[in-house]
Amino acid sequence: MSTTISKGTAVVTGASSGIGAVYADRLARRGYDLILVARNAARLRERAQRLAAETGRTVEVLAADLTRPADLRAVEARLREDHRITALVNNAGVGAAAPLLDADVDAMEAMIHLNVTALTRLTHAAVPGLVKRGGGLVINIASIAGIAPEILNGTYGGTKAFVVAFTQSLHHELAGKGLRAQAVLPGATRTEFWDVAGVPVDHLPQEIVMPAEEMVDAALTGLDQGELITIPALPDLADWQAYEDARQKLKPNLSRSEAAARLKPAA
Ligand SMILES: NC(=O)c1ccc[n+]([C@@H]2O[C@H](COP(=O)([O-])OP(=O)(O)OC[C@H]3O[C@@H](n4cnc5c(N)ncnc54)[C@H](OP(=O)(O)O)[C@@H]3O)[C@@H](O)[C@H]2O)c1
Asked: Is residue 140 part of a domain?
């Protein structure tokens, strides 16, 4: 089933599996043509053919390893030059579960390249054109680890905290110019992520694991409802609002000409 009204083209990174594959499906059914990005070209082609047949939309494949500078720059060039692009879903990402003392620093560096550097460069490439053309959509897939870094590898949590802060700033700077930004903070979601992170998803308590389809559908409902930050599992939005209100309350006191009285050296 597809809509005949085109919403332009959405670029979805990490579209070969898991959450990104569901976004590709849902965005095609919402009327977007697609450019699917990931390393596994065969898997992308198979998904592209199926989606094009099912929805009637144009679905293109751009195979790229976003940790490789040349590949990343090729995707950036496409985002800068293709004026049909109206949406970017920064979804490609990897995780890890090992604590710092057991973590492989080269794997952590590669994670930062994918989760932070690639997301930043792709957004930077896409946004000027989106704004120039009157607006557009950037969905950044963060994680609950971005606000709860104690639950998995700390570098992973740090990369996702970056995604949350970057998205809040994107909204602050560019909402007035027509840019819709959303950060999605999934909890545990049933995908291959857990194999890569080294924790079989079946070893998690099943009451905390959401199917990828349900997670993405909830995130898109949050988008439709105008949410900047969407936590698909959170039952009561007021809990997030209280957290955000506490953050805002700190703001007037975060930078002052004097140190806090409690921190002044004893005379
Ligand atoms: N699953 C969860 O519990 C969970 C929870 C919170 C947040 N997230 C976030 O959700 C996002 C999607 O993950 P997922 O759960 O859907 O896991 P997934 O099924 O493993 O998907 C990851 C996607 O990223 C692509 N990818 C990995 N390395 C890449 C690279 N170097 N260059 C380009 N593409 C690359 C993979 O495709 P190729 O292998 O073909 O490159 C795949 O399409 C990630 O940002 C993750 O941090 C997941």
From this structure: yes
